[in-house]
Design goal:
Elements (H helix, E strand, L loop, with lengths): L6 E5 L5 E2 L2 E2 L3 H10 L3 E6 L6 H10 L9 E3 H12 L4 E5 L2 H9 L3 E2 L8 E4 L16 H10 L4 E4 L5 E3 L5 E3 L1 H12 L4 E2 L6 H10 L6 E5 L2 H10 L3 E5 L6 H6 L2 H4 L4 E3 L5 H6 L1
C-alpha cells in the first residue's frame, strides 16, 4: 500500500463475524497484525450493550479482546456527552448497557426530564420490537427534556430498522428519534455510524493520525464513506453485506470512497505489507 500505517479500525459484523459465527481465520489475522505492532480497535454501532458485555461475546467467538479495545456507539456516546455536559445530568432512553457506559463516564441518570442537560437516546425497543417496560413512559419524558429543560438531544445511532430475533424487521433507535423529532422539531446529534464522531473517538483511542490509520468495513455508506471523509485509508471486505454486484451498481461518488477491496479480512496482512 506504499506507506506506513500504525492503526487499524475494524468493524465487527460482516468483517470479523457473520451470522453469529466468526469469519474463518479472522481471529488469527488479528493476532498476526498485533504481532506486527499495529494498534487495533473494534468498532460497532450497537446501542444496547456495554463494552464488558460485548467483550464476553467476542471472546466466546475466539477473539482476544478487552473492553478498552472496543469503541461501541454506547461508549462513544458516553464519551461525547461526558466531554460536553457541565452538570453531568442526563435523561436516558435505552437499555442497561448504555446506562452502564454513561455512569462509567461519570454521568448521573436523572428520572425527572426537566433536570436534564442532555437527552441521550438509544433504542427503547426489545428484541421483538416492543417498547420495554423501563422505556414505556420515556417518549413524554424525552419531549419534555427538549422543550422544557432545553436539553441537548444526542443519539447513539440513526438505525431505523434492525433484524429481530426471528429475522424480520423491528424498529430501531431511528424510529424513536423520528417520533421525538416530529414532536419537537429538534434533530439529534448522532454519535454512531455514519457520523464521524465515533471515528474521531476511535482515532483518539488509537493515538494515531487519520493518514496512518486504516478502516476495514463491509458497508460503504456506514463504514467506508465517513472514514474516508476524515482522511483514513479504507478497505472494503466482501464477507458481509456488500457484494461485487453491489459495487458494480453503486453510485460512482460512493464507490470512490473505497481505497481497496478484499474478499475477507484474512487478505488484509498481504495488502498492508504489499
Amino acid at each position: 500500500m506504499g506507506q506506513r500505517y500504525r492503526g487499524i479500525i475494524f468493524d465487527i459484523d460482516g468483517v470479523l463475524r457473520r451470522g453469529g459465527k466468526p469469519i474463518p481465520g479472522a481471529a488469527e489475522t488479528i493476532e498476526y497484525l498485533r504481532g506486527k505492532r499495529f494498534r487495533i480497535v473494534f468498532l460497532s454501532n450497537l446501542s444496547t450493550r456495554s463494552r464488558e458485555e460485548y467483550v464476553d461475546k467476542l471472546r466466546s467467538l475466539g477473539f482476544r479482546v478487552d473492553p478498552e479495545d472496543l469503541v461501541l456507539a454506547t461508549s462513544a456516546t458516553a464519551a461525547y456527552v461526558a466531554k460536553h455536559c457541565r452538570s453531568g445530568k442526563v435523561y436516558l432512553v435505552g437499555h442497561a448497557g448504555l446506562r452502564r457506559e454513561l455512569e462509567k463516564a461519570g454521568l448521573t441518570i436523572v428520572e425527572d426530564p426537566e433536570e436534564a442537560e442532555f437527552l441521550v437516546a438509544g433504542s427503547p425497543f426489545d428484541e421483538k420490537g416492543y417498547v420495554t417496560e423501563e422505556n414505556r413512559w420515556k417518549f413524554t419524558g424525552a419531549i419534555r427534556a427538549i422543550l422544557v429543560a432545553k436539553a441537548r438531544f444526542v443519539a447513539v445511532n440513526p438505525d431505523k430498522l434492525f433484524p429481530g430475533s426471528d429475522g424480520k424487521p423491528i424498529p430501531g433507535t431511528g424510529t424513536f428519534l423520528g417520533a421525538i423529532e416530529a414532536a419537537t422539531g429538534v434533530s439529534p446529534i448522532i454519535i454512531g455510524k455514519p457520523s464521524t464522531h465515533i471515528y474521531r473517538i476511535a482515532l483518539d483511542k488509537l493515538g494515531t493520525q487519520p493518514e496512518e490509520t486504516v478502516m476495514v468495513g463491509d458497508q460503504v455508506y456506514t463504514d467506508i464513506a465517513p472514514a474516508k471523509k476524515l482522511g483514513l485509508t479504507t478497505v472494503l471486505v466482501l464477507s458481509g453485506l456488500t457484494s461485487r454486484e453491489d459495487l458494480e451498481k453503486m453510485d460512482p461518488g460512493l464507490r470512490a470512497t473505497i481505497d481497496h477491496v478484499i474478499d475477507d479480512v484474512t487478505q488484509l496482512p498481504r495488502l498492508l505489507e504489499g
